[in-house]
What does this fold into?
Amino acid sequence: MSAGPPPRVILEEPAAATQRLDFGWDAAVAVAPPVARGWSSLGLAGLGLAVLVIGFAVLETGNFVAAQFAQAAWLGWVALAIAVAGFGLLFAAIGRELRGYFALGEVDRARAAHARGDVAALRAELLAWQARLPAGRMRAEGIDDMPMDAACALVEATSLAPIARDAEARGRAAAVQAFAMTAISPSPGLDVLVFGWRGIRLVRQVAALHGLRPGIAGTVALLRRVAMDAATVAATDVAVEAMLRGVLSSRIAEHVAGETAAGAVAARRMILLARATDEACRILPRP
It folds into this structure.
């Protein structure tokens, strides 16, 4: 019996590698690194005005104290004590404002060090941040002797996650208060004032959870960080409220539901404001 023909092996040409379609979306959505900015014209003008006011006040006070010494020694010492106490309190307030303002810069420096992988700078910022946390707040121990990824994970689990939960609790409490105040407020203008006051207080409370003590300048800088989120939320809430008022036809139902919707909108804004403030104050980006 003769053997059949040997099987033929057909070799196919390898298919051309499929090219990846690149529409440039990664570059389009990439977050640009923060740009270092100097003093603005308004900031320079304000600083110059403050220097002039305080400087001439010191000169005038010095002349007044010298005149009191010329009249009587005891009058001079009394005037000098008053001047030292007054300017001491003034400069202490200025120093507190500056510390609160520049503490936000420490958050930016820590995030920048994390982004570029600077282990030494990030470790130093984390240790400094833990040192200024409020008393009773849990701190990650031993982060100066462990790898950076493990140290960041420990800081997240030990400190940042509990702070985020406390910020949520502050936001819920502020939401309840905002809902109640909006419901009993007699005018929309008063609603805006009350909401603004409660929102600023909430921002300061959440910042304090992160060890920040923002004064007026620090609070303004912190509010600037969450202004875009707040504006987006406000625009959405206005559209939702207008839709609700348009759907309702009864005047009584419209009034009751409108007040309820306004209170719900204010409460929702408080919760989102607490989240945005917690995000702005985090020493590390959210994992």
